[in-house]
Amino acid sequence: MKDGDGALMGDTKVSATNVNVYYGEAHAIKDVSVEIGDKAVTAFIGPSGCGKSTFLRCINRMNDTIDICRVTGSILLEGEDINAKSVDPVQLRARVGMVFQKPNPFPKSIYDNVAYGPKIHGMATNKPDLDAIVESCLRKAALWDEVKDRLDKPGTGLSGGQQQRLCIARAIATSPEVLLMDEPCSALDPIATARVEELIDELRDSFAIVIVTHSMQQAARVSQKTAFFHLGVMVEYDDTDKIFTNPSDKRTQDYITGRFG
Amino acid sequence: MGEHIVTSFDDDLIELRARIAEMGGVAETQLSQALDSIERRDSDLAEEVIGKDRRLDALEHEVERLATQIIAKRQPMAKDLRLVVSAMKLSTTLERVGDLAKNIAKRSRALTATSPVRISGSVVRMGRQAQAQLTEALDAYVKTDVDAAIAVWRRDVEIDDAYNALFRETITYMMEDPRTISLGSQLLFIAKNLERIGDHATHIAEMIHYSAKGEAIGPERPKGEADDIGQTV
Amino acid sequence: MADIAAPRRAASLAEVTPSLKKRRAAEARFKAYGIAAISVALFFLVALLSTVFYNGASAFQQTSIRLTVDLKQDVIDPQGRNTADAVMTGNVFRWGGLVDEALLSQLGIDPNDELLAADAQKLISGGARIYLRDYVAENLDQIGTKQEIWFLADGVVDAFMKGSISEETEESRRPIKDRQIAMLRQLEEAGALEKKFNTGLFTFGASSRAETAGVGAAMVGSMYMMLVVLALALPIGVAASIYLEEFAPKNRWTDLIEVNINNLAAVPSIVFGILGLAVFINFFGLPRSAALVGGLVLTLMTLPTIIIATRASLKAVPPSIREAALGVGASKMQAVFHHVLPLAMPGILTGTIIGLAQALGETAPLLMIGMVAFIADIPSGPTDPATALPVQIFMWANMAERAFVERTSAAIIVLLGFLLIMNVTAILLRKRFERRW
Q1: Nearest chain A residue to B10, by CA
Q2: Sign of CA dihedral B150, B151, B152, B158
Q3: C329 vs A174: CB contact, 8 Å cut-off?
Q4: d(CA A133, CA A237)
Q5: Residues C391 and C350 placed together within one structural domain of the fold
Q6: pTM
Q7: Beta strands in A82-202, from DSSP E residues, in sequence order
Q8: The domain A6-102+178-256: what is its CATH number?
Q9: What's the gap in Å between the CA of A117 and the closest CA on chain C?
Q10: Mutating which of B79, B84, B209 best tests the A interface, going by the most A Cβ atoms within 10 A?
Q11: ipTM of the complex as predicted
Q12: Could you give the CA distance from residue A222 to residue A227 in angstroms, rounded to a whole number?
C-alpha cells in the first residue's frame, strides 16, 4: 500500500489499522489499513461482495446493527478509537453521516427530513435556529431553490435525484465531519447522478467524504484517492489519477479495464 | 491484450492495433520505395510513393474514428486507455512519416532530372538506417516488445550523427562546386526529412513504452550533435 | 452460443399450433374452476344472508296498540306526592289495572264479562304495566290526565299480525282465538293497531317474553369486552411484537417463542375458555359471567393474532428507513418509534380490528366462563354480569317460540352489522394512514 501525496488533501481524518470484519464464520474484511484524508473524496471500488460497503459501514458502526457481525482492529476518528466501549454509536453517527444506496427519505415533510437529526441531537432549541439549519443544509445540498416553496410536502414526492440530495442534506444537518456514501447514485439517472457528483465536489471543501461506487468512471470523476477492494482485501490505495491510468497491481488493472473474472 | 469480459471490446482494440500496423506497413513501404527511387533514379516509383500517401491519410482518419468510438463506447481505463491514446498519436506520427516519404519522393523526381552524384549514395545509406529504425519500432509495436522499443529509442543518436556527417559533406560538396547548390540543397532537405523520420521512429518507441508501462521511457534521450550544425556553417 | 437450438416456428403468427391450443385450453379450464369456486362461495353467502335477512327483517318491527289511559291520581299515587320514587314503589299490579281499563273501554267490553275481558287482556304484552310505570315516572306532570300511549302487543299478536300464524288454521290449534282476532280487527279499524320500528330490540335485555326481549344487554356486554380486549391486547401485543421484531436477539429462545405464538393462534378458542375459568375465576376469584373476565379471555385469544399481524407489518417496513434513522444518529428506540411504528400503523390497526372482530364473534370460551346467563338488566360496568351478542344468539336459537326465531336472525343481523362497521373502519384507517415510502 502506498501513501498518496499529502499535498493534495488535508490531514488524516479517519485512520483504520488492521481492520477485520467477520459475519459469523465468514471473514468479510481482511486486515484493511487505510488513512482517509480530510477535505477530500476517497472512493472505494471493487466487485460486488468485495467488502467495500462493509468496510464503509465500519466507519460509523452501522455494522453494530447486525447481530452476527464482529469487527476487530482499530479505526480512529481524529485519533479517537470509535470502537471504544465508551463511545456511543449514536454520538458517532452524528459526526459521521451516511447516505445510502437507495434514496430513503423519511415519509415525512421535506423540512422534517432535514430537521430530524438536529432535533434528536438537540442542536437547535428553537424554531428559527432549526429553520436556519434546514435552509443552510438544503442550500448546501443544492436543493433549496427546488423545494423552498414546498418544505411541508412529503420528501417521498420528490424525484429520485432530489430525494438523494435531500438525504445528503439530512446527513449534513448534524454537521458531521465525515460523510459516508454507499453507492449514492446507483439508483439515479445520469443527469441526477451528475448533479449529485457536482454536489459531492462542492461538499469536499467541508467534509471528508468516503464514497463506495460500482461505477469506476464515477470514482475517477469525483475522488482524489481511490482504494480497490477485492475478496475482502484492500488491493491498492493510491491517488485516483494513478489508479485509473497506471495502477500498480495487476488485479486493479484487470478490474478497472474490465478483464476481471 | 484480450480477455475483456466484453469480447467486442477486445475486437475493437485488436482492430485499432491492426490499423496502426497497416499504417506502419504503408509508411515503411513509402519510405523504402522513396529511397529506391533515389537509388535507381526511377521517377515512376517516386510517383507511386506520392500516390500512396492518400491511403495513409485515409487510414489515419480510420484510426481516429475507431479511437474516438472506443473512448465513447467503452470508456477505456488504464492500459486500454493508454493503448487508445498512443494509437491516436501513432497514427499522426505515421501519417507524418508518410508525408516526409512523399516529400523525399518529390525531391527524388528532381534528382533524376540531373546527373547522378556520389553524395546521393550517402543519403540513401542514411535513409536505409532510418528505415531500419522505423521497421524495428513497428515490429516492437506489433509484438509489444518494450525492450526492442528501448533499443530503437537509444539508437536514434546514430541517425542524428549520420545526418550531421551528411550535412557537413554536402556543404563541403556545394562549396567545392557552386553549380551543385540546387542539387545539394535538395539532398540536404532529403537528409533533414530522414532525420525527422528517425525522430518519429523514436517517438513510436516512446509510445510503445508509455502504452505498456504508463510512464515516459527515461530521462533525456541521447542526442546527436545537431546543435553543432549552426557553428559549422 | 451457436448451440442454442433454433425454436421450431409456426409459419405465421396467426397459426395455432397444437401445443398452443393445449396451453389455451388449460388456461380456460383454470379460469372456469376459479369462476366456479367463486360462484359457489357467492351462492352460499347470498343464501346465508338472504335467510338471515328474510327471517330477521320482521323483528325490526313490532306490533303496538294505542290506548287512551286515564292516569288516575288515586291509583297511581294516592298520597299525591307525585315524585318518581312514589311512582316506582308500591304495588306493580295497579298499573295493570289502568292498562286493562283503557283496553276494555277502547274495545267497548264490559269489564264484568270476565272471559271476554281475559281474552282481551292477552292482546297486550305482559310487560305493559312496567312500561306504563316507567312512562309515568318520566312524565310526572301527566298524572291525573288522559294520555294516548302505545303499548307493545303480545308476542302471539305480533306473530299473527306478521302472518306467522295463519287465520286458516283451526282455532284450537292456534294460540289466538277467533274472538281475539275480531278484537284486533276492531283495533285496526280504529287506527289503534300499528307496526312500529322496534326500538326495544336494541334497548331491552333478555326476557322470556319475546316482545320485550332485546340485544341491548348483550350489546353493552360485548362492548365492555371489546374495550377490555382493546385496552389490553393492543398495547401488550404491539409491545411484544416490537420487542421481538426490533430488539430481541435472534436465538433459539426467540425462535421458540415465535413458534409458540404462531401455535397459540391456532389453539381452539374453547381452550382459552377453560384457561380463563381456571385462572381468572377459580384462581384470581374474579366474578363469574362478568364482561371483564370475558374480555380477559378474549384478550388471550386475540393476542397471537395481533402479534402476528404487527410483526408482519413491522417486517414490511423497508430496512432502509431504519438505516436512514440510525444513520443520522437516532437511537434504536427513536428509529422504531419515530419512523418504523408510524409506517407499520395501518397494518397494526388492521390486524387489531380483525382480531377484535374475531373476538366479537366468539362464543365458545364465553360459555366456559358462565356468560350464558339470563341477563335482563343492561350491565353498568365490566364487572357486572353480562352476556355477549353471539351468546345471546346462541340462547335465542334454543327458544321454541316463533317470535324468538325472528329475533335470533335479527341479532345475527346486528352482529353482522357490527362486524361490517369494524371492517370498514379497518379499511378506512389503513387508507388514512397508508403512506408511500
Answers
A1: A259
A2: positive
A3: yes
A4: 36
A5: yes
A6: 0.76
A7: 96-99, 178-182
A8: 3.40.50.300
A9: 6
A10: B79
A11: 0.86
A12: 13
